[in-house]
Automatic annotation (TrEMBL):
PROSITE patterns tied to this protein: ARGC
Reaction catalysis annotation: N-acetyl-L-glutamate 5-semialdehyde + phosphate + NADP(+) = N-acetyl-L-glutamyl 5-phosphate + NADPH + H(+)
Source species: Sphingomonas daechungensis
Name of the gene encoding the protein in the UniProt record: argC
Name assigned to this protein: N-acetyl-gamma-glutamyl-phosphate reductase
Functional description taken from the UniProt entry: Catalyzes the NADPH-dependent reduction of N-acetyl-5-glutamyl phosphate to yield N-acetyl-L-glutamate 5-semialdehyde.
EC number: 1.2.1.38
Pathway: Amino-acid biosynthesis; L-arginine biosynthesis; N(2)-acetyl-L-ornithine from L-glutamate: step 3/4
Cellular compartment(s): Cytoplasm
Length: 334
């Protein structure tokens, strides 16, 4: 048994981590932290997990790291900067979902997040956590910064096309729509039922923070517009770029992802329900001769491959486990 601590376990991603670990052959959630829910039963916050977790949330402090073999953090952005050093000093493998350590340098972080980085010396310690891009570096790493949900969807759709020279890397446009769970569990007017139901809206115009990850991983310039769609889970990314090569973009995707356990290249247009509840990714691409552009689409579950599933996938690699342990690419439908 690999003793696992989850920080931020009372949120949606934390709940998804708990669900995945309940069925994992090696990882067990032995310490469950939730600051706002400390002392309250896990099953009160996550009633769907009542059969698996009888305990309560605890308040985190550094002494709680004793007897822990792995740490997952699903905390608000900025919080991991204060605790990362203590975790790394103990030699505990650490998978962080926050944006704190995803970017290459402190200046880029400050530009997109509006605050100076509090632990810039640690940035080079973390590996960017998309296994399909960085599998070798993640394997055996002590610190991984799991990628953002929008970034994961867009990067997996576009990376093979950029790398193969099929699209102009200065022309990329990403329109992506996410379910409301991507905004977190905290009640907000912008994501309340009356606001979201029957509505479809763009937000974060020209400034969404996941743009920085996309540009870093793709080595490209990206215009990204996120949208909020009235559903609970899922992301659909629709990506465009000027065609620069004569190859078939769909074949480029098939070649890049041949043998990947969680990425399925499809001739059809992907849908979010195809991957709901899973760590799966469904991607496709087309060349449009009329406009001279390439169209690529990607569907993921924002709580799965976009968050908790990818965290577990990274942890499996870090610990020398089967990469697919406790995960599936099969969605829940309808």
């Amino acid at each position: 048994m690999i003793r696992t601590a989850i920080l931020g376990a009372s949120g949606y991603v934390g709940g998804e981590l708990l669900r995945l670990l309940a069925a994992h052959p090696e990882l067990r959630a032995t310490k469950v932290f939730g600051e706002s829910k400390a002392g309250r039963p896990v099953a009160e916050t996550h009633p769907h997990l009542a059969a698996a977790y009888a305990g309560s949330f605890a308040k985190f402090d550094e002494t709680a790291l004793a007897n822990v073999d792995l740490v997952f953090a699903a905390l608000p952005h900025g919080h991991s900067q204060a605790i990362a050093q203590a975790i790394l000093d103990r030699g505990i493998p650490f998978v962080d979902l926050g944006a704190d350590f995803r970017l290459d340098d402190a200046e880029t972080y400050e530009r997109w997040y509006g605050n100076a980085h509090e632990a810039p010396a640690l940035l080079e310690t973390f590996v960017y956590g998309i296994p399909e891009l960085n599998r070798a570096a993640i394997r055996g790493a002590k610190a991984v910064a799991a990628a953002g949900c929008y970034a994961t969807a867009a990067i997996l759709a576009l990376k093979p096309l950029v790398d193969s020279g099929l699209v102009n890397s200065e022309s990329l446009i990403v329109d992506a729509a996410s379910g409301v769970s991507g905004a977190g569990r905290e009640a907000k007017e912008a994501t309340g039922f009356s606001t979201v139901d029957g509505n479809f809206a763009a937000y974060g115009l020209l400034s969404h923070r996941h743009t920085a990850e996309m540009e870093m991983a793709l080595g490209a310039t990206v215009l990204f517009t996120p949208h909020l769609v009235p559903m609970t889970r899922g992301i659909l990314a629709t990506c465009y770029g000027e065609a620069t090569g004569s190859g078939d973009p769909l074949e480029a995707l098939k070649g890049a992802y041949a043998g990947e356990p969680f990425v399925h290249v499809t001739d059809a247009s992907p849908a979010t329900k195809w991957v709901s509840g899973s760590n799966g990714v469904q991607v496709t691409a087309r060349y449009d001769e009329r406009t001279g552009r390439v169209l690529a689409l990607s569907a993921i579950d924002n709580l799965g491959k976009g968050a908790a599933g990818q965290m577990v996938q990274c942890a499996n690699l870090m610990l020398g486990l089967e990469e697919t342990a406790g995960l599936t690419a099969i969605g829940v439908y309808p």
